[in-house]
Design brief:
Blueprint: H1 3-24, H2 26-46, E1 54-60, H3 65-75, E2 80-85, H4 88-96, E3 102-106, H5 110-117, E4 123-126, H6 131-156, H7 178-209, H8 211-216, H9 222-251, H10 260-285, H11 288-305, H12 318-324, H13 328-342, H14 346-370
Parallel strand pairs: 1-2, 1-3
Antiparallel strand pairs: 3-4
Helix pairs in contact: 1-9, 2-7, 2-9, 3-6, 7-9, 7-10, 7-11, 7-13, 9-10, 10-11, 10-13, 10-14, 13-14
Length: about 375
């Protein structure tokens, strides 16, 4: 038997050992398949950046058909749950008690000004503690006001005119569903956790149990050990990716406008980088608990906060924006959101794939240098 045949036999033995270890260890299956299910259900159904069913106070000081008609416009909107108050003081107290998010104030001369001058200012007060929600609610109120004005003109047979004509067109996410934006980014977070936790916890567990020391005295080389750890968990991670993509498309209705081939190739690059990071962590600390904590702090939190998954990178301070370039998930999130919502935009996909390739090589080199056949 020559050296090449012996190397193939050792490699097959390593792969068989790792796959048997995966089948015997339910935590690996849970990380690869149960965790994506949990996170996708949590974020897909429990977290939304859309503002719907917002409690809003309506103050009508004078009873009039025009004021009642305008107030009814809020009742027919999916975005508001209107609460009627007699005075603005009562509505302001409700805002302080956080019973409503804001109020719309129709003064006693609302109808008189509307009929005589065709101009009737309304008062809008919003709770600005949550600035993002306040801006969204402000836009919704403006939309209700414009729609009511247009309907009123149609009822009267008069011409509705505004000083500025706005023709709105939303690209890539015309429904403006936050779920379409969140789910692709969540897949990046899931792949980060799968790659880092699988190798960090499993390899560190082998160091704790002493099986890694037993492996060191065999003829298996350090390169074969590294590949034997990498390939089985790569297959497991790609299985988790397939599950996540299928749930995103068929369960949550997120459009997939790009091709599957670049999606899986870019995901493979990112997964290898995450696996290399996990191997580097476990080879350094060799303690299961510490490896898990480091993996979460070094991979999950940056992927969640600094990748553009939820928070816009361009809105971050300059030093933090520079820091995001050291986060591999930043480039993967950009690829996923482009492939899901815009399609095969090769300028974005290729540029970010090149960055992932650099991360891949970096972490694999570190993992290779840390994987040596000696006890330290």
């Amino acid at each position: 038997m020559n050296e090449r045949q012996a190397a193939r036999m050792r490699m097959r033995g390593m792969l068989r050992k790792e796959f048997l270890q995966i089948l015997r260890d339910p935590s690996s299956i849970a990380i690869a398949f149960v965790m994506p299910l949990f996170l996708l259900f949590l974020f897909g159904y429990g977290i939304s950046l859309d503002a719907k069913h917002v409690p809003l106070g309506i103050v009508i000081e004078g009873s009039s058909p025009e004021a009642a008609s305008f107030a009814a416009s809020f009742e027919h909107s999916d975005y508001f749950i209107p609460h009627t108050y007699r005075t603005v003081q009562e509505a302001e107290a409700a805002v302080v008690r956080q019973e409503i998010k804001g109020l719309v104030w129709l003064r006693s001369d609302f109808e008189e000004n509307l009929l005589s001058q065709n101009v009737a200012p309304i008062g809008v007060m919003l709770n600005g503690v949550d600035a993002n929600t306040a801006r969204i609610v402000q836009g919704y109120v403006q939309s209700v006001w414009n729609t009511w004005n247009q309907q009123r003109s149609e009822w009267d047979g008069s011409e509705f005119s505004m000083p500025v004509g706005l023709e709105q067109r939303v690209w890539y996410n015309p429904e403006m569903r936050s779920r379409n934006y969140l789910i692709p980014g969540l897949i990046a977070v899931i792949m980060t956790l799968i790659g880092a936790l699988l190798t960090a916890l499993v390899v560190a567990r082998e160091w704790e149990r002493g099986t890694m020391e037993a492996l060191m005295v065999t003829p298996v080389t350090a390169k074969e050990i590294l590949l034997g750890k990498l390939l089985p968990y790569f297959a497991l991670g790609m299985g988790g990716l397939v599950l996540s993509v299928m749930m995103a498309v068929f369960l949550f209705g997120v459009p997939l406008r790009g091709s599957l081939l670049p999606l899986f190739l870019c995901s493979a690059l990112f997964l290898v980088a995450a696996l290399g990071m996990g191997l580097s962590i476990s080879s350094t600390v060799r303690n299961q608990f510490v490896a898990g904590q480091i993996a979460i702090v070094a991979t999950f939190l940056p992927a969640f906060m600094l990748s553009g998954f939820i928070f816009d990178i361009n809105s971050m301070p300059g030093p933090i924006r520079l820091l995001t370039h050291l986060i591999a998930a930043r480039y993967y999130v950009a690829i996923l959101q482009t492939l899901f919502l815009a399609g095969d935009v090769w300028r974005v996909v290729l540029a970010n794939s090149l960055a992932l390739l650099v991360f891949c090589a970096f972490f694999l080199i570190i993992a290779r240098r840390r994987t040596v056949k000696r006890l330290e």
